[in-house]
Amino acid sequence: MGGTAVCGTFGTRCGLPAVLLCLAALLCANLLLYFYLDALYQDTNPLSAHTQCPLRHFKVGTRTTCTPWLQCPEIRAEVRRVKLIGQGAVKKVYLSEWRGQKVALSVLSSEQYTDDFLHGLTMLRALQSAHVVTLVGACEEDGVFVTEYHPLGSALTLDATLAQDRYHWRNSWHTRLQLAIDYVAFLAYLHSSPVGIRVMCDSNDLHKTLSQFLLTSDMRLLANDLDALPEVERGRQGVKCGHHELTGDFAAPEQLWPYREDVQFSDEAMPGYDEKTDIWKIPDVTRFLLGSVLGSDVIHFHLFQIYTECKSNEPHMRPTALEVLSVYRSVYDSMIESQSQRVRDML
């Protein structure tokens, strides 16, 4: 009996500090989580790399000063090809080196695609912003241009990248919803750009659409391939994405051949369309970007109504990209506030 009393007394004396230590540790952990969420929320501001340099200037890699866009003499003398990292119908892309910095050198693949190549370069120059990859320089007479290099490649690598140990901690709804916001923000910019209302024509399927964007090391999206951005001129017949028939559910209804199956497709008879084709595709791209992480089902629930509106068969009934962006940002804010509130309740 005496031994039991001693043990009970001893447990009482030693148990109290242990409880206090546990409570203190829990408090510290909660505070750290709260400050992390607060910092994460602050990180949702638009990318600002382009705003740090004047027009027609750039800053890449570890460089701290802005440099004027490279011209033909500088590109020929200073840009050294390292290896081929990408190839399409219009251009080949080489990992290259310029003054100790890694850059991407795009080279015209074939003269038959010169118009597409030059259109892409024109768009790249005109659309330099927080939403588009940084232009380093160009030499039209050599059929080349140089952009900032992003080692993770296109958005197609997202799942594989977030599965890596070094990025696994970023595989959260915060990161993935921010990527969806970046995507919609680019569309909003594209639909009211300095060079008119533009449509993403290289977006006839999910794979092709994702390949148009680069994934940055800090998990943001940048538009990269701008070879097919026709302008919508109000009062005209609209645009057409290529001269061949489009099929599948990813394409908007107005992009599909509208006549009977026994009527042969004709590019001349195919009606044009506008930027609302991009809106139709937003839910499909968003579902890929969100994946199946914890919280994604809640986000889909909050976005259900805007998804439905984006998928309206009537283009004029779909929201604008700016309206979709407003909803996405509102959902992000409400998710952050809800998570922060839960942390505060624990303190």
From TrEMBL:
Domain of life assignment: Eukaryota
UniProt KW Nucleotide-binding keyword: yes
Chief localisation class: endoplasmic reticulum
Segments passing through the bilayer: 18-37
GO biological process per UniProt: protein O-linked glycosylation
Membrane topology: Single-pass type II membrane protein
Subcellular localization: Endoplasmic reticulum membrane
Keywords associated with the record: ATP-binding, Endoplasmic reticulum, Kinase, Membrane, Nucleotide-binding, Signal-anchor, Transferase, Transmembrane, Transmembrane helix
GO cellular component: a single term: endoplasmic reticulum membrane
SUPFAM superfamilies: Protein kinase-like (PK-like)
Enzyme Commission code(s) on record: 2.7.1.183
Keyword Endoplasmic reticulum: yes
Domain Protein kinase residue range list: 79-347
Reaction it catalyzes: 3-O-[beta-D-GalNAc-(1->3)-beta-D-GlcNAc-(1->4)-alpha-D-Man]-L-Thr-[protein] + ATP = 3-O-[beta-D-GalNAc-(1->3)-beta-D-GlcNAc-(1->4)-(O-6-P-alpha-D-Man)]-Thr-[protein] + ADP + H(+)
GO molecular function annotation: ATP binding; carbohydrate kinase activity; protein kinase activity
Matches recorded under InterPro entries: Kinase-like_dom_sf, POMK, Prot_kinase_dom, Ser-Thr/Tyr_kinase_cat_dom
Function according to Swiss-Prot or TrEMBL: Protein O-mannose kinase that specifically mediates phosphorylation at the 6-position of an O-mannose of the trisaccharide (N-acetylgalactosamine (GalNAc)-beta-1,3-N-acetylglucosamine (GlcNAc)-beta-1,4-mannose) to generate phosphorylated O-mannosyl trisaccharide (N-acetylgalactosamine-beta-1,3-N-acetylglucosamine-beta-1,4-(phosphate-6-)mannose). Phosphorylated O-mannosyl trisaccharide is a carbohydrate structure present in alpha-dystroglycan (DAG1), which is required for binding laminin G-like domain-containing extracellular proteins with high affinity.
The protein's name: Protein O-mannose kinase
Source species of the chain: Sinocyclocheilus grahami (Dianchi golden-line fish)
Lineage summary: Eukaryota, Metazoa, Chordata, Craniata, Vertebrata
